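Treating backbone geometry as a discrete language has practical consequences that deserve illustration. Part of our work consisted of pairing the sequence of a single chain with a tokenised description of its backbone. We regard such an encoding as a compact summary of how the chain folds. The amino acid sequence and the backbone structure tokens for this protein are reproduced below.
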Amino acid sequence: MAASPHPKKDLPQLAPRPVPGRRVRAGRVERNAEQSKSRILEAALEIFAAGGFGGARVDEIALKAGVSKNLIYHYFGNKESLYVAVLEKSLNALAEYHDSLPVHFDDPEEAMRQIIRNTFDYFVATPKIISLMNTENLLRAKYIKSSDLIRSIYKPIMERFHRIIEFGSQKSVFRSDIDEVDLYISISALSYFYLSNQWTLSHIFKRNLGDAPFLAQRKEHIVAMVMSYLKP
């Protein structure tokens, strides 16, 4: 048989043609998954804050989030892991809030006043975090201990705090023996105790401590107390 005048050539291997819409569908699935997780975390925050860890039920969280209980287990594994995820998200929001606000580092006294006011304002705006922390303290930090993320969340907050204190000491407007952890705990406690106990204290002292004038008065009271302590 005569050879073909046109010898065969190896044809290049073509990449599979992408299926139209596959990439779009994948992106949509990812977005839907993130939206579902966000709804679950928001619903879980509300349920955990209202009933504590023991009183919260996954069925109730699923109903509030508008998802199936199986989807919650798919994303978070179990109730304990969901609770830790809620703690992490809530405390990370606190760190992001502090990080988003400008601080006048060149004026350490004003910077400290800002930190104090910002801390108080954030607790006022996020009462569910106070409820979560009440629950976690009753549990002796059982679930916070299982999270490597939560401790790291506080690192940038304390670095900013350290910078303000150090600069204030260098300028001789702050005393030189400040324990920054003690000071941060005091600022948080002066806000936290007032807000977490406002209902009982309002009844005892016959004043609505949640009213705007009392909140403003308390905030400036904390500022005055802390700034007085800081003086050299």
The chain has a mean pLDDT of 89. The chain is about 75% helix and 0% strand.
